[in-house]
Amino acid sequence: MMKGLNILNFLALCLIASAPPGSWQRLTDDGDYKSHLAWSPDGSHIILTRIHEDKMSLWMLNVSERRITRLTLREDGPDFDAAWFPDGKRLVYVHDQLQGTDGKLHIYTLNADGTKPTVLIPNKAFEECPRVSPDGKHLLFVSTRDGNQEIYLADISGKNIRRLTNDAAPDTHPSWSPDGQFIAFASARSGNWDIWVVKADGSQPRRLTNSPALDCWPVWSPDGRWIAFTSNRDGNYEIYIIRPDGSQLRNVTQSPAWEHFPTWSPDSRRLAFVSTCSGGYDIYVVDLD
Amino acid sequence: MLTLGQQWQRTCQGLNRREVLQIGFATGLGLTLADWLRVKAHAADSAARAQSVIFLWLWGGPSHLDTFDPKPKAPFEYRGPFAAIPTTISGVYFSELFPQLAQRARRLAIIRSLHTRSNDHGVAGTTGLTGSMSGSVNLGGQVAEGNLRPALGAVVARATGRTAGRLPPYLIIGGRLHQGKKPVVGEGGGTLGQRYDPFRIEYKFPSGVRIEALELAPDISPERLQHRRQLLTHLDQARRWLDTSSSAASLDAYQRQALDMLLCPNALRLFDLSQEPPALRQRYGLTRFGQSCLLARRLVEKNVPFVQVNWSNHVESEEDAGDGGWDMHYRNFEIMQNRHAPILDQALSALLDDLEQRGLLERTLVVAVGEFGRTPKINDKVGRDHWEHCYCALLAGGGIRPGVVYGESDDRGERPRVYPCTPADLHATILAALGISPEQLRNLNLPTDGRVLEPLLA
Question: So what's the ipTM on this one?
Answer without folding.
Answer: 0.90
